[in-house]
TrEMBL record:
InterPro entries on file: LITAF, LITAF_fam
Pfam families: zf-LITAF-like (PF10601)
GO cellular component: late endosome membrane; lysosomal membrane
UniProt-annotated location(s): Endosome membrane; Late endosome membrane; Lysosome membrane
Primary localisation category: membrane
Keywords, alphabetical: Membrane, Metal-binding, Transmembrane, Transmembrane helix, Zinc
Span of domain LITAF: 71-154
Protein known as: LITAF domain-containing protein
Bilayer-crossing regions: 105-127
């Protein structure tokens, strides 16, 4: 296979030539700074909360006030200790009605302790505590509004 055209050039591209206007402006700034022997600090930080304009040459900042939104207050109600691991009847403070709780089992301290012990003794069964509800803590939720009512822990 013969080719009549030469292979493409692989030389790196050259940077664009410097811009004369920019170079002359930078030279003037450097000259004026060296004569007065002072440093120019960067413009101050302005948060992006509202429209603002910064005149860098004079280092003046003009801000417009932003509308403030009303604050939201969140009231956190801690869950009480539950009397049992099974579902029980109680009063929901959110629904204001008597309900039967819905227990959901989550990994707790006992789950991790049994995991570590079984991992040391017989590692093929080390993940069994994560499958057994008898090793997990019970979080009781309201069946109507899904509010956390109580927590029953196996240990600690």
């Amino acid at each position: 296979m013969s080719s009549t055209s030469p292979p493409p050039s692989y030389s790196p591209r050259r940077p664009p030539p410097p811009y004369e206007e920019q170079n002359s402006r930078n030279a003037k700034k450097e000259c004026s700074m060296s004569e007065h022997n002072y440093k120019v600090s960067p413009p101050p930080f302005v948060p992006l909360s509202g429209p603002s304009t910064i005149d860098v040459d004079q280092l003046q900042v003009v801000l417009t006030t932003a509308n403030t939104q009303p604050t939201t207050v969140v009231i956190v109600q801690e869950a009480k200790p539950a009397p049992t691991f099974a579902s029980y009847e109680t009063f929901c403070p959110t629904c204001q009605k008597p309900i039967h709780t819905l227990p959901k089992y989550v990994n707790g301290a006992l789950t991790w302790i049994v995991f570590i012990l079984v991992l040391i003794l017989f590692f093929p069964l080390a993940f069994a505590p994560f499958c057994l509800e008898s090793c997990k803590d019970a979080h009781h939720y309201c069946a109507r509004c899904n509010t956390l009512i109580g927590i029953k822990k196996r240990i600690f």
